[in-house]
């Protein structure tokens, strides 16, 4: 097998309305909601950088310009911090800077599904492999989830998706794998089904919001065929690449928090705060106060 092309590009679909977090998301993108003191979009970019990603494409919508502004240089703020010698605050801004020319944004004018959002990035993707990160899915792990996928891509030379087991009764919420060989780490993908009924699900292995895909998928997305919910489903296009390129699911190491819902978001706050040396003791001190409360 020839060495696969380097993985250097990532697409981040961030055009959603965030209706589950209204009214907070009335005037701010849900991807700007902070977990402790970093917005979800920052966690996604940090994870991508750790996997060797150098170019980023945000798929945005109306009212999402603050996501682009976030990665811009804030001259007034930085000057004020320097003048006041607040070097710790200045240092905290470091991760929000991004190399000139490495970030672009594309508008998805209509909410036609994840597949349509990825198709909107076709000029950015070109003929290169690319990662997809859904910032709603926040993964806490020693080695970043996307880095784990990138290593599996370099090993297999094909598409790799992060997977986790879900209760059988919840398969109608997720893209589910039809699996072949399974070594407990890498799973051969024989098919993909979008949100099957529990009785029709080929397994209980679900795709989470981390993907590494080869450009073969773009040819199928270009047809803009509608699937479940009348949307252009990425799952359907990925399924059509099976047999064209190697396709695997990766049981990643780490804990995933679904920050697209309130309970997952609140749990992530606690989990990530407990990882911070300056916060952990205080968090452990106040948590017992709320045990057993109705």
Give an overview of the whole structure.
By secondary structure, this protein is α/β, with parallel strands linked by helices. It is 30% helix and 24% strand. Strand 9 and strand 10 form a beta hairpin. The model has no long low-confidence stretch (mean pLDDT 90).
Quickly list its features:
single chain; 294 residues; two-stranded antiparallel ribbon; alpha/beta; 13 strands
At a glance:
This protein is of the alpha/beta class and 294 residues long.
Topology:
Layout (H helix, E strand, L loop, with lengths): L8 E5 L20 E2 L2 E2 H11 L4 E6 L4 H6 L4 H9 L3 H6 L10 E5 L6 H6 L2 H4 L4 E4 L3 E4 L4 H12 L2 E7 L9 E8 L3 E9 L10 E9 L2 H6 L12 H7 L6 E5 L3 E4 L3 H12 L3 H10 L8
Parallel strand pairs: 1-4, 1-6, 4-5, 8-12
Antiparallel strand pairs: 2-3, 6-11, 7-13, 8-11, 9-10, 10-12
> Averaging pLDDT over every residue, what do you get?
90
Task: List SSEs in N-to-C order.
Answer: EEEHEHHHEHHEEHEEEEHHEEHH
Count the E strands. 13
For the record, give the distance between the C-alpha atoms at the N and C termini, rounded to a whole number. Answer: 59 Å
% residues in beta strands: 15-25%
How many individual helices? 11
The helix fraction, in percent, is: 25-40%
How would you name the oligomeric state of the polypeptide chains in this document?
single chain
């Amino acid at each position: 097998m020839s060495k696969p092309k380097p993985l250097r590009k990532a697409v981040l679909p961030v055009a959603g309305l965030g209706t589950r977090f209204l009214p907070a998301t009335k005037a701010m993108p849900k991807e700007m909601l902070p977990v402790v003191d970093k917005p979800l979009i920052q966690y996604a970019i940090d994870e991508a950088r750790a996997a060797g990603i150098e170019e980023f494409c945000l798929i945005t919508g109306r009212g999402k310009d603050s996501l682009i502004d976030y990665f811009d240089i804030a001259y007034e703020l930085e000057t004020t911090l320097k003048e006041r010698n607040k070097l710790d605050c200045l240092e905290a801004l470091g991760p929000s800077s991004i190399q000139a020319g490495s970030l672009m944004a594309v508008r998805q004018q209509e909410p036609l599904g994840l597949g349509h959002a990825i198709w909107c990035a076709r000029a950015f993707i070109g003929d290169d492999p690319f990662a997809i990160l859904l910032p709603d899915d926040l993964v806490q792990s020693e080695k970043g989830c996307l880095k784990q996928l990138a290593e599996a891509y370099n090993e297999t030379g094909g598409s790799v998706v992060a997977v986790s087991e879900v209760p059988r009764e919840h398969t109608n919420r997720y893209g589910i794998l039809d699996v072949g060989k399974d070594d407990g780490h890498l799973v051969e993908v024989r098919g993909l089904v979008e949100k099957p009924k529990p009785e029709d699900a080929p397994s209980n292995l679900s795709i989470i919001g981390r993907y590494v895909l080869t450009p073969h998928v773009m040819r199928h997305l270009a047809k803009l065929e509608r699937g479940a919910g009348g949307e252009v489903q990425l799952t359907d296009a990925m399924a059509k690449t099976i047999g064209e390129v190697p396709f695997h699911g990766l049981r990643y190491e780490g804990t995933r928090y679904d920050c697209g819902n309130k309970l997952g978001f609140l749990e992530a706050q606690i989990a990530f705060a407990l990882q911070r040396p300056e916060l952990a003791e205080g968090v452990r001190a106040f948590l017992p106060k709320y045990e057993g409360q109705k």
